[in-house]
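Hey, I'm writing a tutorial for new members on how sequence and structure tokens pair up, and I'd like a real worked example in the thread rather than a made-up one. If someone can provide the structure for the chain below, I'll link this post from the tutorial.
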Amino acid sequence: IYAVYTPVNGSFIQVQNNGLSTLTGKTDVINGYAFVPNANTPNHLLVVLKVPISGFFIERTGKYDVWATDYQTYSLVYSCQIVPPTNRKIENVFILSRTKTLDPAVLTNLKNMLASKGFNISQLSVTTQDCDV
């Protein structure tokens, strides 16, 4: 799994999420964009992804809040959305790295930050990054 974020201008970012499908073994790509709706809070973005559903592409919008970053090696991102029609709440936390591995001390600090906000960090899963891109 990897993502490519390309700045378009001061408040819009092109997003391309890439991953290996466990069903087909092929690469899946989901495109979209992110934007800052309020310049006073630039770490709170909205991301719009074009998700394939039954042969059609549906735009899904979700929150994309950057909780921590050093702008060079890592970002900690929180996302929360209510999914209609069930109104089910889905929360995601992403620890993103520019490399396939992250310094263990940085990872520990980020996990401690999540735990302090009430997250059960034992439920975090690590995505193996063993493909060459």
